[in-house]
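Help needed: design a sequence for this.
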């Protein structure tokens, strides 16, 4: 049973999202899009995600990352799920995705169950959006109303994936610009960065941070150096949040205040710049972070492919029909 604090947080999220969700109707997404055509959709997705996260808590972070990396490249169109073909090189093997994005098998398994319940009805893009929301909530984070009605792209772009996604070495100015290019504010960017309160990262993505950065806690750097040598061990994993890596909470912001951000891009949010005040607020007030994160996830979920992009409802998320 939810605690009074948890119920309060969910209510705050619902109230804060109400005006935002009302405006989504203009782009023809609706929280009730599948109510008649696939009424069991959300329970199917949540049950499958719950099983995956119970088996491996890290999978929740992986599915959340999958959604982010899909939406930032030509909109939320499930293009990241497509395998390479003779006509295009897909996004799975782009630099930001090849060794950091996973969870494809979970989405495929959900799609199989959804197709059995309501064939040729639900897009892979909508399944990823729902799975991301449930991943966050099942690990202790907020929930929100997912707007539905997306369609799936017929192609993918490795070059766009290589150029549209911010990297672990990004500066604050670069982060603000790249999120701004997607219509997301600096506040959205900082809230969404809080997703790093869950998950793990490969040594190769944070090695420079622990050996070369000036703004890093020396004890923290030494701890990470124990399993991430200066050469070799690129695939060795470390938790992004040093304290509670399997719980969606505010520890990420606490880490930043202690100069224990795992990525250079993380610590840029708390380095004497414009986002310091927001980091301090999220650190103290989980309810504010949860509300802002939910709102930012809805905004990111509204990123759509260009109007002339051909789309369909894929029967298999890995390939076009």
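Sure. Designed sequence:
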């Amino acid at each position: 049973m939810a605690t009074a604090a948890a119920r309060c947080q969910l209510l705050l999220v619902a109230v804060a999202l109400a005006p935002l969700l009302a405006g989504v109707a203009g782009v023809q997404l609706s929280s009730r899009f599948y109510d008649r055509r696939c009424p069991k959709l959300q329970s199917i997705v949540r049950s499958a995600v719950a099983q995956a996260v119970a088996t491996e808590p890290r999978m929740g972070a992986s599915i959340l990352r999958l959604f982010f990396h899909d939406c930032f490249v030509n909109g939320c169109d499930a293009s990241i799920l497509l395998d390479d073909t003779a006509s295009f090189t897909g996004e799975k093997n782009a630099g930001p995705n090849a060794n950091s994005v996973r969870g494809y098998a979970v989405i495929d398994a959900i799609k199989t169950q959804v197709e059995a319940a309501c064939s040729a009805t639900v897009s892979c893009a909508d399944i990823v959006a729902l799975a991301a929301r449930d991943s966050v909530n099942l690990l202790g984070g907020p929930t929100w109303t997912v707007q539905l009605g997306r369609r799936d792209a017929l192609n993918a772009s490795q070059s766009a994936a290589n150029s549209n996604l911010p990297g672990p070495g990004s500066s604050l100015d670069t982060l603000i610009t790249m999120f701004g290019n997607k219509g997301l504010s600096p506040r959205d960017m900082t809230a969404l960065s809080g997703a790093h309160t869950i998950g793990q990262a490969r040594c190769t993505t944070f090695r420079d941070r622990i050996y070369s950065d000036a703004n890093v806690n020396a004890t923290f750097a030494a701890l990470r150096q124990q399993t991430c040598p200066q050469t070799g061990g690129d695939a060795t994993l470390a938790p992004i949040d040093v304290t509670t890596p399997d719980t969606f909470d505010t520890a990420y912001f606490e880490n930043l205040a202690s100069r224990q951000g795992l990525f250079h891009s993380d610590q840029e949010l708390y380095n004497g710049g414009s986002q310091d005040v927001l980091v301090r607020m999220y650190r103290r007030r989980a309810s504010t972070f949860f509300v802002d994160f939910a709102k930012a996830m809805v905004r990111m979920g509204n990123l759509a492919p260009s109007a002339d992009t051909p789309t369909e409802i894929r029967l298999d998320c890995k390939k076009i029909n």
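Residues 1-8, 18-27 have pLDDT under 50 and may be disordered.
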